[in-house]
Design goal:
Length: about 270
């Protein structure tokens, strides 16, 4: 983007979408700024902003309802209407794919996520949603392949953290550990943006026997953590039976992430 203010606003909105922080005043303000200032030619950027502002009362609540096995038909109908109205919006297709996956309709989930990826193949929110969708369908190889094909594993801490996390959980060998070690030192990214990647590397160090080095990384991840990074830190503290940081204080500061809540509840 040529306009640095728009670029900054997009970062705020994209990060809030990834961690499902729909109450972030900064992200809400950024989304409104994008809608009012972004050129009409920047279609995906404007769609991203609209999608974020619609979230508290739309897709996220629909997914929660489906998980409670209520109103699934109504949710599908609503999302179908959304993609009919906005057929080139990858975010709408991604929401539908996640909903299908949650309902166990895996063929439809794969098809709709394929469309989402074709429309937003370099969008970190779409990529992480796709990876989460394929993991829900117990297809870690496909989840990792999507992230690899993006070409962002070496340069984007959000994508690198997803790739490493999936690879570790599925006993696949990540090719990006060494690159990730460089990314976590890159101060062009905020601590918040790097927190999940730092936590992932810390966990790997601990699993490999380097407990002291791993704990140091976990503490660094908790400097300004996402909910997922905080959950990782809590899990490590329980495994090691030691206090790594004041988790109670951190929990009060970190906004709840639906992504993390689902992971922790086994959904």
């Amino acid at each position: 983007l040529d306009n640095p203010s728009i670029a900054t606003a997009v970062e705020f909105v994209a990060e809030a979408l990834i961690v499902k922080d729909f109450e972030s005043s900064e992200a809400i303000e950024a989304a409104k700024y994008i809608i009012s200032k972004a050129p009409s030619s920047s279609l995906l950027i404007r769609q991203l902003a609209h999608h974020f502002l619609e979230q508290p009362s739309s897709s996220i609540n629909k997914l929660k309802l489906v998980m409670e096995e209520k109103n699934s038909g109504e949710s599908i109908a609503s999302l179908k209407k959304s993609v009919r109205l906005h057929p080139l919006n990858p975010l709408a297709w991604s929401d539908m794919a996640l909903l299908y996956a949650t309902l166990g309709q895996f063929d439809k989930a794969r098809l709709t996520m394929k469309i989402a990826l074709s429309l937003g193949k370099n969008n970190r929110f779409i990529l992480r949603s796709a990876a989460r969708c394929f993991m829900h369908m117990d297809e870690p190889d496909r989840a990792v392949k999507v992230l690899h094909r993006s070409g962002l594993c070496e340069s984007d801490p959000w994508i690198a953290s997803a790739e490493i996390s999936i690879s570790e959980s599925a006993s696949l060998k990540s090719k990006y550990i060494s690159k990730a070690k460089g990314l976590v030192q890159d101060e062009n990214f905020t601590y918040y943006s790097r927190s999940e990647l730092i936590a992932g590397l810390g966990t790997i160090e601990i699993k490999n026997g380097s407990v002291r080095r791993g704990k140091k990384l976990i503490r660094k991840a908790l400097y300004d953590p996402t909910e997922n990074a905080l959950a990782q830190g809590e899990w490590i503290a329980k495994q090691l039976q030691t206090e790594i940081a004041d988790m109670t204080q951190l929990e009060a500061k970190v906004p709840a992430s639906f992504e993390a809540q689902r992971a922790n509840s086994g959904l």
